[in-house]
Specification:
CATH class of the largest domain: Alpha Beta
Number of domains: 2
Structural class: alpha/beta
CATH superfamily of the largest domain: Type I PLP-dependent aspartate aminotransferase-like (Major domain)
Shape: globular
Bound molecules: pyridoxal-5'-phosphate
CATH architecture of the largest domain: 3-Layer(aba) Sandwich
Oligomer: single chain
Helix content: 25-40%
Strand content: 15-25%
Distance between the termini: 29 Å
Amino acid sequence: MKVFNFSAGPSVLPEEVKLEVQKDFLDFNGSGMSVTELSHRGKVYEDIQVEAESLLRELMGISSDYEVLFLQGGGSTQFAMVPLNLSINKRADYVLTGNWANKAFEEASRYIDAYSAASSKDAKFTYIPDVDKISFRDNLDYVHITQNNTIFGTRYTKLPSVTCPIVADASSNILSEVIDVNKYGLIYAGAQKNIAPAGVTIVIIRKDLLERIPMSFCPTMLMYKTHAKEHSLYNTPPCFTIYMAMLTFRWLKKLGGVSEMQKINEEKAKKIYEYLDASSFFSNPVAKKDRSLMNIPFVTGNEELDAKFVKEASKNGLVSLKGHRILGGMRASIYNAMPMEGVDTLINFMKKFEMENK
Ligand SMILES: *Cc1c(COP(=O)(O)O)cnc(C)c1O
């Protein structure tokens, strides 16, 4: 059965990428081997990783002032690596906009004086605090933000203006919209939302930050330097995931790059929000200016109807629409690889469900 997968992560991948992987799986480029079997020290694999990095640099406009790293451990390991590697004064401010932001903050609090400079907890994380009104402390090592809040469906459209580096968790919005990398000190993202299967974590770090001395107890594997020095080949990288990331980058480039992707994403999200706002049956609680292009939570206001919706949608090939366990209701994650057809099919199904259950 053909399904549209609205999972928040791991999530939908481009059809073309999956077909390419299938075609190449047993014999990659005439090597007689699968990509999963190639030595990570060999030329065949090296070309893959080099192409992946150069495509990512091209797609995001990453200058030579930045190092691109392919690491493991997911976004969650970055919650520790950031404070372990970037501390000078052991002081950093966090903006708490949801579960992932809170986790990053709590992890940093184990090592440094981390401070919650602003939070949207007062309104159940349905908005992004006004960055111009936040008073950040002085002498900060960095300010940490969660650029797109996967669970609550919010996103930053503006960055705080601070003199210290901005560290951003872009796990669920990397490559979905144009960003100016030069405004950041460090950007990190797990691959499994917008790029590839789980397994690789992308870190884009400004080179001067690599000069900072990691905390004395920081494990070698958790030092950015270790991986920067060895071009992400200090130990065995997640080769297959990096290969799939490379294919996704090729796909995105062919489609016209991130600016073209952003237009499509805006169109997809707009269709759903317009329908939700016009509906007296479904609703989305997020402040309009802060709405995510990637993750759209919605409810009927009745838990039984929500459960019925998720079940019937699934029977109709619209899968993984159940909301996160802390929020309930529904959530449609419409990452880059979700085709317009999936969005249209979802809206038609919602209309039908509304009519039948109002
Ligand atoms: C999914 C997600 C994470 C956690 O990623 P893991 O790779 O599972 O550790 C962190 N931050 C955000 C914003 C996410 O969406």
